[in-house]
# Entry
Amino acid sequence: MFLGNEFPREQATVEVTWRPRADTDVQRVQWVDEAVSLGWHKDDDHDELGTTHFQIETDEKRVHEPGRLEAEAPLSFLETCLQRLPAVLEETIPE
# Structure
């Protein structure tokens, strides 16, 4: 239902993390299923990629790239990630 059409993988988890900190909050939205783990992370793990990075991991690859997501408020961050998620997941479906 969330994706708007039938999805080939039956089970998945969406993990949402928000940890307030004095400087920059840690925020993550991560999708995990049997084929892929992907999500947007606002943390200090990859400073070279900017405030937020996107990462995707499969059996074949592990990629970290700039997240191009500058939402500060936790609900705005979550909303933006959930809006982007269906299109990103479409790219993980083999043709």
